[in-house]
Amino acid sequence: MKILVLNAGSSTQKSCLYDINGDIPSSPPAPLWEGKVDWSHNQGVAEIEVEKSTGEKLTEEIATDSQSEIMARLLNTMSAGSTKVINQLSEIDLVGHRVVHGGREYRQSVVISEKVKQAIANLAKLAPAHNPANLAGIEAVENLLGEVPQIAVFDTAFHRNIPDAAAIYPGPYEWAEQDIIRYGFHGISHQYCAERAADILDKDLRSLRIITCHLGNGCSLAAIKNGYSVDTTMGFTPVDGLMMGSRSGSIDPGILIYLLRQGNCTVEQLDYVLNKASGLSGISGISSDMRQIKAAISQGHERAQLALDIYVHRLRSYIGAMLASLGGLDVLVFTAGVGENSPEIRQAACEAFEFLGIKIDSSKNTNKLVDQDIATTDSAVRVLVIHTQEDWQIARECYHINLRE
């Protein structure tokens, strides 16, 4: 079964083609074909990069803003030229889409219908930077591949079992009735990492209490018990929770009221500040990239050091909150760009929980091991570094849904 996975964003897009024959492998395979599109650098120009599993690559630019034109060119590289992996596009059996927001209605992956498309469009008010792009990707595939089954895999769905005590905000109850609740995000990544952790440790996922730390430009934690997310740090929007690359994370809401009353900010300016001019970037004044923050620290930059200190403080605080929701901890997972590549962050996060018996092997921690346990043999908690593979998780979801249909 050939499954095309599409992760469409507002300015970038990633696609993968997987071929699954028989049972799902426990370790993620490399995709047959992988394509990336970026139209953020030059207006009206799409930069395309394509690579086959055998190593052949293609890089080109096309002058267009049209999602359908970009998708047509991308898919053409799958069936023609040096990056050809199939004879014709009709060989694609399923297409899986990452859709950021499913709201309260869509709490698991579903086959896309007109009703589902309308719901994704309606939920754009909750995810204006993502759901419209996700929908555009779905419609582009419809235009190009006709009636091939498409499946929406929602980033919010993994958090569907969070209890009301954690999901409902302590404002007026009418908020909950208006669907203003904690949805949580990065669910595809958190689910993948939890299942992968159980595979690596050769344990039953349902027997493990896991905290997954997705630390990239966007950051969130999830507390996972019996295989389900029972708490998470992102909330009604992805701005909640941890300090991030350019997002503030949780702040006193009175600050926003104060700024609005003083007349210093419009709603649009506040939105920009919270999402684009806060976090590591806002505090350091340098960058949202942790690598550049650490480079500045090595040169004695005080605000960069402050940004890192705040980042670590808040990471530790929220790990503690997730720990309380679990009532204990068996596995701590680090993933995404910072989680996978910053031994200093992993070490700093774990040092605060040495009282739990967490012990990191410093050699393993600094050796850039992926999908490995970096804890010492006598650590009371296993500490894993896992390369998150959301595209493969989406392909697995599609495969299982197809079996059920």
UniProtKB/TrEMBL annotation:
Primary enzyme class: transferase
Is the keyword Kinase in the record? yes
**Matching Pfam families, A to Z?**
Acetate_kinase
Co-factor binding comment? Mg(2+). Can also accept Mn(2+).
Query: Which residues catalyse the reaction?
Result: 155
Q: What is its EC number?
A: 2.7.2.1
Keyword tRNA-binding recorded: no
Q: Which PROSITE patterns match?
A: ACETATE_KINASE_1 (PS01075), ACETATE_KINASE_2 (PS01076)
Q: Where is this site: Transition state stabilizer?
A: 186, 247
User: Which pathway is it part of?
Assistant: Metabolic intermediate biosynthesis; acetyl-CoA biosynthesis; acetyl-CoA from acetate: step 1/2
**Catalysed reactions, as listed in the record:** acetate + ATP = acetyl phosphate + ADP
Judging by the UniProt lineage, the source's domain of life is Bacteria
Q: Which UniProt keywords apply?
A: ATP-binding, Cytoplasm, Kinase, Magnesium, Metal-binding, Nucleotide-binding, Transferase
The positions annotated for binding Mg(2+) are 7, 390
Spell out the CDD domains in the cross-references. ASKHA_NBD_AcK_PK
- GO cellular component term of the entry, any: cytoplasm
Where is ATP annotated to bind? 14, 214-218, 289-291, 337-341
Which InterPro entries does the annotation name?
Answer: Ac/propionate_kinase, Aliphatic_acid_kin_short-chain, Aliphatic_acid_kinase_CS, ATPase_NBD
Q: How does it assemble?
A: Homodimer.
Q: What does this protein do?
A: Catalyzes the formation of acetyl phosphate from acetate and ATP. Can also catalyze the reverse reaction.
Family label:
Belongs to the acetokinase family.
NCBIfam families, A to Z? ackA
Name-wise, this protein is Acetate kinase
Origin species, per record, is Plectonema cf. radiosum LEGE 06105
